[in-house]
Structures are given as C-alpha cells and as structure tokens.
Amino acid sequence: MLPEGTREVLLTEAQIAARIQELGQLISDDYAGKNLLLIGVLKGSFIFLADLVRNISIPLTIDFVTLSSYGDSTTSSGNVKIIESLRANVSGQHVVVVEDIVDTGWTLSMSRILEDLHSGNAASVKVCTLLDKRCRREVDVPVDYVGFEIEDRFVVGFGMDFDGLFRSLPMIAALDEKTTL
Ligand code: IMP
C-alpha cells in the first residue's frame, strides 16, 4: 500500500533486503581478517546500518557521527556541520562510513569526516551508501559500495525523512510533491 504523503514506491522491502544481503556479503569478503569499523552517519543511516551489520559475517565494531541535516528543505544547504563526532579510536581500523543517501556530495565533503578519519590514522576509509543520486552530484566524493543508484527524486522511508517524518516506512518511496509545498 502507498503510504500517505508519498507518490510511488521505488524500492520494496524485499528488494532492499536482497540488496543489503549482497552488500553484507561483499563487505564480509573484502574485510575478512581485518579490523572492521562501521561508522553510521545519523540520523538517516540507522535502519540501513542495523540491517547491514546483521548481514556481515565477520567481527566488526560500530560507531556513529551526527551531521546536520537539511532541516525542512529538500535541497542541500551546502552548510554542513558535525553535531556529534566519533568516540572510537580509528587508528589502525579499516573504516566503512555508512550513509543513507549521497546526493550532491556536500554532506560528506563539507563535514570533512573522511579527512578526519585519514588523519586519525585509519588503515583504510571507504563509503557505503544505500542510495546514490549520482545525477545530482556537485562535489566528487568517493563512494565504494552502492545499494541502488536512483534518479533525481526526493525519497523517504527506510530511515530517510522529510521534515523528520517518514523514517519508519519499511520501503523507499518518492515523496508526493504536494507534501513539499
Ligand atoms: P548531500 O549532501 O546532498 O549528498 O546529501 C546527503 C544527505 O542529505 C543525506 O544523508 C540525507 O540525509 C539527505 N538527503 C539527500 N537526498 C535525500 C532524499 O531524497 N531524501 C531524504 N534525504 C535526502
């Protein structure tokens, strides 16, 4: 059923689950025998991260950073701040930063989180995103694991919000344009 306020289901629960299983397998293979630290970018990544880690079969640790969000707008302000930073010591860790969606790229780029991880002597730093809106990229950010590439539409569900709402939807849906007015 189409959730109220949305226009179209883009990815069903089953499609998302199948792809996360594949990503988990890929990461398990790539990091076998290494110290793996997953860093979830809050708030949007919390559901994806929870499902992803349960599909990774090797030992790992988890931390979170909170970056400022879009507020109630559907476009990036280009003014991104780290609201809560890492607790983990990243030195010698193989780090995968887990994002819900990479859109313009400003969030990852302006937060300087990847640079901070390198200067904290992480053994390696990669990015895993559930969704990639590559057609909207304004800054070149490295994205190593991608769940799905999507077209230029504002999406909600599976952790992603509009004005704080819709995060709990189990599927990913395009927001109804009327909801943004
Ligand atoms: P970027 O800075 O434009 O790359 O956007 C990254 C962040 O913006 C994501 O982590 C999301 O929090 C938010 N975002 C971008 N596009 C969408 C969308 O379609 N729906 C919900 N949030 C989005």
List keywords for this structure.
alpha/beta; binds inosinic acid; Rossmann fold; 29% strand; 181 residues; 3-stranded antiparallel sheet; single chain; 6-stranded mixed sheet
- Rg from Cα: 16 Å
Q: Architecture, according to CATH?
A: 3-Layer(aba) Sandwich
Query: Please, how many domains?
Result: 1
State the name of the first-level CATH class: Alpha Beta
**Can you count the helices?**
5
The strand count comes to 9
Largest sheet: 6 strands, mixed
Low-confidence stretches: none
Proportion of helical residues: 10-25%
Overall mean pLDDT stands at 91
The backbone outline, from C-alpha atoms, is: globular
- Tell me the series of helices and strands, N- to C-terminal: EHEHEEEHHEEEEH
Q: What name does CATH use for the topology?
A: Rossmann fold
What is the terminal-to-terminal distance? Answer: 23 Å
Structural class by helix and strand composition? alpha/beta
Read across the widest sheet, the strand sequence of neighbours is 4-3-2-5-6-7
Small ligands present: inosinic acid
| Percentage of β-strand residues | 25-35%
Structure description:
With 181 residues, the protein is α/β, with parallel strands linked by helices. It has one domain (6-173): Rossmann fold (3-Layer(aba) Sandwich), CATH 3.40.50.2020. It is built from 5 helices and 9 strands. It has helices spanning 13-30, 46-53, 106-111, 113-119, 177-180, and strands spanning 6-11, 36-42, 60-67, 82-84, 94-102, 124-132, 145-149, 155-156, 172-175. The protein has a 6-stranded mixed beta sheet with strand order 4-3-2-5-6-7. The chain has a 3-stranded antiparallel beta sheet with strand order 1-9-8. β2, α2 and β3 (60-67) form a beta-alpha-beta unit. The model has no long low-confidence stretch (mean pLDDT 91). Inosinic acid is lined by residues 44, 69-70, 76, 99-107, 154-156, 160.
